[in-house]
């Protein structure tokens, strides 16, 4: 029996090594245990919670599997005689009652501290963006940036172009969410965070504000993650994270008039005007071949009435 167990262990180990090698995962992927990569400190903190939770779960699993294997190997049936029965082992019962309680308490503590970190808000954020969702597009209003008319710098999505949410890296960004019709959801996978947008959040007792810091420049797809109607699947936007100096240049352009069109620079026009290489190249795609007329707010209002 001992030789069979040894052979089975070797065979299982071989299968495990083959499975690990054939997945094609990098060392970083393996250590993340399938958790996606994020671009914010909040995402990193959630990844750490996930990683250590999986390690703890694997440790408990190995212990349980070992005890099961030990029972199978050393307490298998050896004859027709009934083995000695043991009941009411109080010390053992206390051990397997206290240990799970300690484990749950520790997991709860680290989960609560991670949640508090992710949801923490500074009193004076560097950038404040009002995110307005509607069927089936987005509008982004920069509360700290104004046009010559005194209005906030605004980016409004159309049926022809996905809206661009341009943000700076290494600055505290505050997002204030609301919807103009039904419930939508603001979701950027690289943030590893999403939050529903409600009509009149102040009346619905909803926390519609969150903050984060983007660690690295890049272009990230944003989505509506709440089924909201016919064109829900097309209700996308794009986050463009720029270094601080380029973000400031972008905002300066957004407050200026484009000599070609005679209108204020749009988001894509401002990025095209900037000399920052691939990072500023237009990347947002159109909704073709769908004819959605997603900016028809008046039509949406009439439909609801």
TrEMBL record:
* Record field: catalytic activity: 4 Fe(II)-[cytochrome c] + O2 + 8 H(+)(in) = 4 Fe(III)-[cytochrome c] + 2 H2O + 4 H(+)(out)
* Required cofactor(s): Cu cation
GO molecular function terms attached to this record:
copper ion binding; cytochrome-c oxidase activity; oxidoreductase activity
Q: Domain named Cytochrome oxidase subunit II copper A binding: which ranges? A: 124-253
Tell me the domain of life: Bacteria
Supply the Gene3D superfamilies for this chain: 1.10.287.90, Cupredoxins - blue copper proteins
Subcellular localization, per the record? Cell membrane; Membrane
Q: Specify the protein's topology with respect to the membrane.
A: Multi-pass membrane protein
Q: Which residues form the signal peptide?
A: none
Coarsely, its chief localization is membrane
Which of UniProt's keywords are assigned here?
A: Copper, Electron transport, Membrane, Metal-binding, Respiratory chain, Translocase, Transmembrane, Transmembrane helix, Transport
The record's annotation in InterPro entries points to: CcO_II, CcO_II-like_C, Copper_CuA, Cupredoxin, Cyt_c_oxidase_su2, Cyt_c_oxidase_su2_TM_dom, Cyt_c_oxidase_su2_TM_sf
Tell me its EC number(s), please: 7.1.1.9
Asked if Metal-binding is a keyword of the record, the answer is: yes
TM ranges? 51-73, 94-112
GO terms for CC?
Answer: plasma membrane
Q: What class of enzyme is it?
A: translocase
What's its job? Subunits I and II form the functional core of the enzyme complex. Electrons originating in cytochrome c are transferred via heme a and Cu(A) to the binuclear center formed by heme a3 and Cu(B).
Q: Which family does it belong to?
A: Belongs to the cytochrome c oxidase subunit 2 family.
Record-linked NCBIfam families: CoxB
Instruction: State the protein's name.
Output: Cytochrome c oxidase subunit 2
């Amino acid at each position: 029996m001992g030789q069979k167990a040894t052979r089975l262990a070797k065979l299982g180990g071989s299968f495990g090594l083959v499975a690990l090698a054939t997945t094609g995962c990098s060392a970083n992927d393996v250590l993340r245990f399938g958790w996606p990569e994020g671009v914010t400190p909040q995402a990193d903190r959630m990844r750490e919670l996930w990683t250590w939770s999986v390690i703890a779960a694997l440790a408990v699993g190995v212990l349980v599997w070992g005890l099961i294997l030990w029972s199978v190997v050393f307490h298998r049936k050896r004859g027709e005689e009934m083995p000695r029965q043991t009941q009411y082992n109080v010390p053992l019962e206390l051990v397997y009652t206290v240990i799970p309680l300690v484990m749950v308490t520790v997991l709860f503590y680290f989960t609560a501290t991670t949640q508090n970190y992710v949801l923490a808000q500074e009193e004076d954020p560097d950038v404040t963006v009002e995110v307005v969702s509607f069927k089936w597009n987005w509008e982004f209003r920069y509360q700290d940036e104004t046009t010559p008319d005194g209005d906030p710098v605004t980016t409004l999505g159309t049926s022809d172009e996905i809206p661009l949410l341009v943000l700076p890296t290494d600055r505290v960004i505050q997002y204030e969410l609301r919807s103009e019709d039904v419930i939508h959801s603001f979701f950027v996978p690289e943030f590893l965070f999403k939050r529903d947008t409600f009509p009149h959040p102040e009346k619905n007792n909803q926390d519609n504000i969150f903050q984060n810091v983007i660690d690295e420049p890049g272009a990230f797809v944003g989505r509506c993650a709440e089924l909201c109607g016919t064109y829900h699947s097309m209700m996308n936007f794009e986050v463009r994270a720029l270094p601080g100096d380029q973000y400031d240049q972008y905002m300066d352009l957004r407050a200026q008039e484009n000599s070609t069109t005679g209108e204020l620079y749009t988001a894509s026009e401002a990025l095209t005007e900037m000399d920052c290489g691939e990072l500023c190249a237009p990347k947002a795609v159109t909704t073709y071949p769908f004819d959605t007329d997603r900016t028809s707010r008046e039509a949406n209002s009439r439909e609801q009435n």
